[in-house]
Amino acid sequence: MASAPPPSAARLYRANRFVSLPGELDPDTYDTSPEKRRAETERLAIRSRLKRQYLLQLNNPSPPAVIEDPALLRWAYAKSQNVYPTFRPTPKTSFLGAAYALGPLLFWIFVLKADRDCKEKHIQEGKYKRPFSVFF
Known about the structure:
The protein is mainly alpha-helical. 58% of the residues lie in helices and 0% in strands.
């Protein structure tokens, strides 16, 4: 009688409690449900179709003036044109908006007022002679 074949290394493998399991061997990574695997294959198929279309345009002997990458177009649209649907007014954003709008204005008002008050004080003390001005 022939004995059974020896067990494979995968069956003999025991995780070391002192070392974490690498991502390739983690059951949560590779043991996915059939729905997840189906969704991943659909995404991979879409990605490969888009890549093939882009490479066909790129390697065309008479290429168009501009090669449009649909993924890049979607990304650029989401970053530039589609900002407000994802914007949420919060106290922080409201404060930052007010600070950026009113901050420089209040700063220059303070600087010009302080300069004018300092100049007026020097004129009152006689340390500074008021220059002749038609407008002021």
